[in-house]
Amino acid sequence: MKLYFLGAAGTVTGSKILVETNQLRILIDCGMFQGLKNLREMNWEPLPILPSTIDFVLLTHGHLDHCGYLPKLVADGFKGKIFCSHPTKEITRLILEDSAKIQEEEAEKANKETYSKHKPAMPLYSVEEAEKVLPHFRVVEEGVEVQLTENCWFKLFYAGHILGACSIELHVENKILVFSGDIGQDDDVLMFPPKKPQKADFVFLESTYGNRIHPQEDTLLFLESIINSTYQVNGNVVIPSFAVERVQTVMYLLWQLKKQNRIPEIDYVIDTPMGINVLDTFQNNLKWHKLTPKACKEMDEMFTLVTKFEETIETIYNPKPKVVIAASGMITGGRVLAYLEHYIVKPENTIVLVGYQAEGTRGRRLLEGEKEIKMHGKYYDVNANITSIEGLSAHGDQNDLVNWLKELELPPQQVFLIHGENMALDALRIKLKEQYHFPIMIPTLGQVIEI
């Protein structure tokens, strides 16, 4: 059996692991590279494996770095089935259509304003190509064994992280391969704790926060302080946010503060059409999260939901203080750029980062203190206050990742650490060695390993 590490090896994005036997090729996740330019450029390169020779895709969840390459895979010849949970199918549909639409809009803008070196600038894939992925989906229930061939089956088990996210237990050639996908926090605001694997010969473990422990800060108190101090100077709070789960988590926290009369009576705006659509997915998949139907309804009623770009412009030029949650979470595109182009130059405003910021993204550069940021070909001075709430991450920290392996009945033959930057990977490697003495390997991008 061969393993091809086609993404998320030595980096956080572009998750793709190919499992190859004599009879079968299975791709675990099919993500898009984000962040650093040399990684983003890999999205345009053909896979080293012909997509037409891949039999199945097993999808852990619907974030862009795990599903965003699917339209390209299908366009390049993949004809097989894509298996995932019901919420993941719904979220992936929204994510892919939104991603394609943003790419088309940005290519059009780049061509119109001639700031791209590509003549003409092109989207990686179109909305039409994103829609062609949908017939390939097959929804499976969590915990149900799904037979792929006579000697190969898999099951999904709950991972927390975002709505519908699952880890994968794959049985092939008398070996058990467990893929963590992205693992949520054990004490997440909205998601239940991740389930832990019991048996595994080979483990593929995400390492996003492998070198960090989430601070035990009072998130509500911190958010209250940010909003009130910005309101007092007549400023706006902008929260760049991932449309799936993070928007809903921030909504929940703001709703709690509002119920307790701890934040002012101002406009609270959700400006991410996809995030608004995900609210329906939350309502329709109640067993996957902690919110009741009543809580979902009450929470939604607190917010002004913006869907049209004309409404975005109206909101931006409204002089009254407001709190805006807008995608994307790492400021790589989306509506949040329109707000930042107007608000980031003004010192009375506050930008709150509430999720992981990958290398090379605008969010990461702001987090590291850059004083000038480029958007749509123009540079903007960073005069607004930049702050972050690390405890809101949908990823488990080092403790959560280490604990995820504690119920294994027997030591695995190998643990592969993936989906992390170098310092995080190495810190988690050392911690796992100390705790369990498991054999651990950190694969490199493009590496092929025989097991």
Description:
The chain is α/β, with parallel strands linked by helices and 451 residues long. It folds into 2 domains: 2-212 and 394-450, Metallo-beta-lactamase, Chain A, CATH 3.60.15.10; 219-392, 3-Layer(aba) Sandwich (Rossmann fold). Helices cover 31% and strands 21% of the residues. The protein is built from 14 helices and 22 strands. It has helices spanning 37-40, 64-67, 70-75, 86-113, 127-131, 219-232, 246-259, 273-284, 293-301, 309-317, 336-343, 362-367, 398-404, 422-436; strands spanning 2-7, 16-20, 25-28, 56-58, 81-84, 137-139, 146-149, 152-158, 166-172, 175-179, 202-206, 237-240, 267-271, 304-305, 322-326, 350-353, 372-375, 378-381, 385-388, 414-418, 440-441, 448-450. A 7-stranded mixed sheet has the order 6-5-4-3-2-1-22. It has a 7-stranded mixed sheet with strand order 7-8-9-10-11-20-21, with helices on one face. Helix 4 (86-113) runs antiparallel to helix 8 and helix 6 (219-232) packs across helix 7. The chain is globular. The termini are close together.
